[in-house]
């Protein structure tokens, strides 16, 4: 295992830290002692094949599943086993797999739902900052969720997570089912969000998308972290990705999404 990623230059009290997290589902451990740091201002990738336990870990961070062991903390704030609402209040937003939005409500109404715990002023600021990142949604405010393209739906769930102006955002399978051109539209926006100081954990089954945008990466397999380090190391040594079945098609040398062959649904 290579360990060169460092968070020592970032104040420890601002890092979202998962330590030795164990999650059980259906009576067996599906996350088996995972430690991950998510640093403000950075995109961190969590890669892993089908069934690795990525989504289970995300659900534990979001307060949907209670870890059987280990801790999730933001500085001195212990978030382990807290309720989803409490975790959101701490500034941790989770975009779960599957782009769940309310299909009969309009874009504006879906964003309004995401603002329910905010003051009127917070909602106003959060909404305009989210729409500034996704001007496409501005034009679609009165359109029902179900009529949006796959790319617009992904923008809407991201915007819903961003309205509360979180410090951290976990995004489970950003690229799933989206055409490469749509994914390429979203990546610079993620970088922009990170540059504003937000810590992003980008969870992907295939490496091509995440390596184009992330500074650091973790590879998870069978519920455990098998690699953690800088994405530059993974780009230099793609055998690490091949051995974990994380490459699909051919990966460009720059780690862009050229080899991404997800079905076009954008
Ligand atoms: N509701 C559930 N009850 C019991 N076991 C589950 C449940 N959901 C998932 N699992 C199991 O937990 C393990 C980890 O699944 P998880 O969905 O966390 O993996 P993943 O890395 O997100 O995979 P994918 O890339 O397919 O999204 C798998 O073996 C899966 O079968
Ligand atoms: Mg998953």
Question: What do these coordinates show?
Answer:
The chain contains ten helices and ten strands. It is of the alpha/beta class. Strands 6-7-8-3-9-10 form a six-stranded mixed beta sheet, with helices on both faces. The longest helix is centred in the last third of the chain and has 16 residues, at 180-195. 44% of the residues are buried. Bound molecules: adenosine-5'-triphosphate and magnesium ion (MG). Magnesium ion is lined by residues 54-55, 97, 172.
Describe the structure using short key phrases.
single chain, 266 residues, 2 domains, six-stranded mixed β-sheet, four-stranded antiparallel β-sheet, 10 helices, 10 strands, 23% strand, globular, disordered N terminus, binds adenosine-5'-triphosphate, binds magnesium ion
Low-confidence stretches: 1-8, 250-266
Strand content: 15-25%
The radius of gyration is 18 Å
| Number of structurally distinct domains | 2
- Average pLDDT, to the nearest integer? 88
Order of helices and strands: EEEHEEHEHHHHEHEHEEHH
CATH class of the largest domain: Alpha Beta
In angstroms, what separates the terminal alpha carbons?
Answer: 37 Å
CATH names the topology of the largest domain as: Rossmann fold
Sheet with the most strands, sense and barrel status: 6 strands, mixed
CATH architecture descriptor name of the largest domain: 3-Layer(aba) Sandwich
List bound small molecules: adenosine-5'-triphosphate, magnesium ion
Helix content: 25-40%
């Amino acid at each position: 295992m290579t360990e060169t990623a460092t968070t020592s230059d970032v104040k420890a009290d601002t890092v979202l830290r998962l330590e030795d997290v164990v999650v059980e589902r259906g009576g067996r451990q599906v996350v088996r002692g995972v430690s991950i740091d998510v640093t403000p201002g950075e995109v961190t990738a969590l890669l892993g094949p089908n069934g690795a336990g990525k989504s289970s870990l995300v659900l534990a961070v979001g307060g949907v599943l209670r870890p059987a062991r280990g801790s999730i903390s933001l500085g001195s704030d212990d978030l382990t086993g807290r309720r989803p609402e409490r975790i959101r209040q701490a500034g941790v937003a989770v975009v779960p797999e599957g782009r769940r939005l309310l299909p009969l409500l309009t874009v504006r109404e879906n964003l309004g739902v995401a603002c329910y715990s905010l003051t009127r002023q917070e909602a106003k600021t959060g909404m305009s900052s989210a729409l500034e990142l996704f001007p496409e949604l501005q034009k679609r405010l009165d359109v029902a969720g179900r009529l949006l393209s796959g790319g617009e739906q992904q923008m809407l769930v991201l915007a819903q997570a961003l309205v509360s102006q979180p410090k951290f955002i976990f995004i489970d399978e950003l690229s799933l089912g989206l055409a490469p051109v749509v994914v390429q539209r979203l990546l610079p926006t993620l970088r922009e969000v990170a540059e504003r100081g937000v810590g992003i954990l980008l969870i992907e089954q295939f490496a091509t998308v995440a390596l184009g945008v992330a500074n650091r990466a973790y590879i998870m397999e069978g519920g455990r972290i098998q690699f953690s380090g800088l994405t530059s190391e993974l780009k230099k040594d793609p055998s690490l990705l091949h051995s974990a079945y994380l490459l699909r098609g051919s990966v460009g040398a720059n780690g862009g999404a050229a080899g991404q062959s997800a079905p076009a649904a954008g």
